[in-house]
Each structure stands twice: as structure tokens, then as C-alpha cells.
Amino acid sequence: xxxxxxxxxxxxxxxxxxxxxxxxxxxxxxxxxxxxxxxxxxxxxxxxxxxxxxxxxxxxxxxxxxxxxxxxxxxxxxxxxxxxxxxxxxxxxxx
Length: 95
What we know:
By secondary structure, the protein is an alpha+beta fold.
């Protein structure tokens, strides 16, 4: 899988901001079929940082009602990546 398709977008949330401040963790939305090794390599090559740990979580889609019909949003994958002390990613600097 292409490393630019592994990482879909950064997740900037309040919880993610607290994780960044306390332990230098950053959070990304990643491709559902990407594994931890692919995520680690993609983050290290794209952002030129050293990755210590990668945790992943599959987030189940929420059920939505549209009148009588019941639908569901897509299930997606989240990756929490811990960076080496002193390494930073510019996207998360303004948080």
C-alpha cells in the first residue's frame, strides 16, 4: 500500500490535544486495512520523525435514522502514534 494512502487525515480533537501535551502522542485517521508497521513507516517517512509506539482502534459507525430507514455511517480506523521526545509535527503545533 502506498504510504500516502495509509494516513488519511490528522484528527484534531480535545482528547488528542491532551494526549499531545502529556505524552507527545498524535492521532490520525488511517486506511482500514493498514497495519501498525505500515502506519509507523508512513509517519516516519512523511513527517521525518521517530515513532516509538503505535496503537490502533477500529471505530464502529454510528446508526442514523432517515425517516423510517435506518442507516449506518462507515466504520473507520484510528491510530495513536507516540513520537520521540523533541520530535514534532507541524500540523498539530497550533493546537
